[in-house]
Amino acid sequence: xxxxxxxxxxxxxxxxxxxxxxxxxxxxxxxxxxxxxxxxxxxxxxxxxxxxxxxxxxxxxxxxxxxxxxxxxxxxxxxxxxxxxxxxxxxxxxxxxxxxxxxxxxxxxxxxxxxxxxxxxxxxxxxxxxxxxxxxxxxxxxxxxxxxxxxxxxxxxxxxxxxxxxxxxxxxxxxxxxxxxxxxxxxxxxxxxxxxxxxxxxxxxxxxxxxxxxxxxxxxxxxxxxxxxxxxxxxxxxxxxxxxxxxxxxxxxxxxxxxxxxxxxxxxxxxxxxxxxxxxxxxxxxxxxxxxxxxxxxxxxxxxxxxxxxxxxxxxxxxxxxxxxxxxxxxxxxxxxxxxxxxxxxxxxxxxxxxxxxxxxxxxxxxxxxxxxxxxxxxxxxxxx
Length: 385
Description:
By secondary structure, this protein is of the alpha/beta class. The chain has helices at 98-105, 152-161, 169-191, 200-209, 222-234, 251-257, 283-290, 308-317, 322-328, 331-336, and strands spanning 2-9, 17-25, 28-33, 43-46, 51-54, 56-61, 108-113, 121-129, 139-149, 215-219, 239-243, 261-263, 294-296, 354-358, 368-374, 377-381. The chain has 2 domains: 1-54 and 345-385, Urease, subunit C, domain 1, CATH 2.30.40.10; 56-343, TIM Barrel, CATH 3.20.20.140. It is globular and about 65 Å long.
């Protein structure tokens, strides 16, 4: 057992505990409060008054599946077919990607890593811990979502580079509808006891049609967001709106619709494409005020995953309450990605993913990690490489 004592605990589910303790047993949180019952032989970490939070959760990234060295082709975009729901990001995930270690050193302990947005349908995303030697043993939830994409990327790859469909936003929507219709017919035939010829694409879309996993919709521009919503309604699908760059322009409508928005990446220099012209650190505050469920993301490697607390802090600078910023990178991101039963808050029975901080990284840019704990194991200590 492991006991963390003398901690300023911010559990994300309930009020802060000014001088509290957390008991960890078997990789789970066994107790939390001002004082917990712990055996005499428990290993003790004295937090010495430091801030203690749940591990940060990244709701949308390509950590582990995107090449970072010059001359190496990334593995998260299969650019030979715009419709590839049968692909699984776990099959291109590299547990030895150095970015995973950087995430742990920055207190980011888990996240949803996803195919890219070159295709209209890119394949299934998964939620993983950022510690491990084999992806099969790192998974929290797989599949966690089906990646789909609207807007410029598929148009550029297929229309501009390959001179084939989709060349327009109309084609993106039409091709997505067509495969969903066909997959639904395939599913209904199977449910009726018929035996249609096996189709791996349609098989992969059945969990989406049954609402078992959401569509993870890459959509920056307002019109693309509305197209995503239109199609989700047509097929009665669950969905998250990832990036949501124009969210501030349509926050009242998004609040009425109720789909979670994953906001980012927001940092960077000159916008890389037209559809991100309206990016702003004010967007999370505007969405929060309107009542839109949201989380903050980096889209690593677009922005390095280490900067996730910084992105939350910049949202605070632009009007988002600090408590909401913390939740936007912990309990909100966990809940809206479907892994809130495991991670995102410090509660009895949840995974013991805990970070002890030197300072508050959301309000202090130089704050660092003192200890990172994943599944009850200390995986980073201050000063480790």
